Amino acid sequence: MRLILILLLASSTFALPAVAKDSGKTPATAPPAAAAKAGDQATINENAAQYKHCLALARQNPSEGLQEAMAWESMGGGEAARHCSAIALVGLRQFEDAAKRLEDLAADSHSDAKLRAGMLAQAGQAWLLAKNPERAYAAQTSALKLVPGAPDLLVDRAESLAEQKNYKEALADLDQALAAAPDRVDALTFRGTAKRFLDDRKGAEADIGKALSIDPKYQDAWLESGILKRLAGNDAEARQAWLKVLEIAPNSAAADSARRDIELLDVKGQ
Questions:
Q1: How far is CA 204 from CA 72, 237, 244, 246, in A?
Q2: Where among 94, 124, 148 does a domain terminate?
Q3: Which of 99, 126, 148 finishes a domain?
Q4: Which of 30, 40, 156, 166 is the most core-located residue (most Cβ within 10 A)?
Q5: Which region holds residue 166: left if phi is over 0, alpha if psi is between -120 and 50, else beta?
Q6: 223 φ, ψ to 5°?
Q7: Together in a domain, 197 and 246
C-alpha cells in the first residue's frame, strides 16, 4: 500500500450508514457497501499500527527492524515497508544505502508533495551522515521544489552548504528560514556561526544573544558564544560559556567541543 494511505487515511474514519430498524421487527443488516467499508477501515488501522511498530523497532533495534521491514515488503508492505527499511539502515550506519533508498522511494512514490519532500529531507540527512554534502544539497533542493520555503529544509540545506564552506549561500537560506520562523533557536545559532565565518562578528553576537534570550539552555548557542568571546580576547568569559555547555548537556557533541576548547585555553595559559 502507499505510504500516504498509512499516514493520512489511518487517522480518518469512514461513516457507516445507520442500521435501519422497523418497529417491532428484526433490525435490517448493514448493506454490502457498509461491510466493505468496515473491512477497509480495519485494514487501514492494521497497516498504520504495523508501520508505527516497524519504525519504532527500526530506531530501537535496527537489525530486527530491517528484517521485519523486508518481510513486510515481501508481503505487500509497499512504500511503508521500504521507508522502514531505509530508517533501519540509518540506524545500522549504512547511510549511503539509506539515502539512495529514500531518494528512490520519493521518485517512485504516488504520495503528495509534502510526504515526498519528507522522504527527500531524510535522504539529505542521511547523505550528510555519509559525509556527502553535495548529494545532501541536491536532495534538499529537490525537496524545496516540492514545498518551497519550508524552514526545516532551509536549515538542513544551510548545513549542507556550510559543510562545503559556502557560508554566503548558507546565510541566505537561514535568512529565509528565520523570516518564516524568527524564533527558531537552532537557525539563529547556525546563522551566528555562518556570520562568524563571514567576518560579521557583530551580527554573529546579535544572533547568539537572541538565541540565548529565547532558550538560555541551548548548548550550541553557548558553545558559539564561547568561540565569539575567545575571538574577542575575553578568555575568562569564553571559559564560562563553555563550562555552561558542560553543565547543560555534558554528554553532547557540543560538550565534546567545549572540552577541547577549554583544553586549548589551558595550554595557552601554561
A1: 49, 16, 19, 22
A2: 148
A3: 148
A4: 156
A5: beta
A6: -60, -50
A7: yes
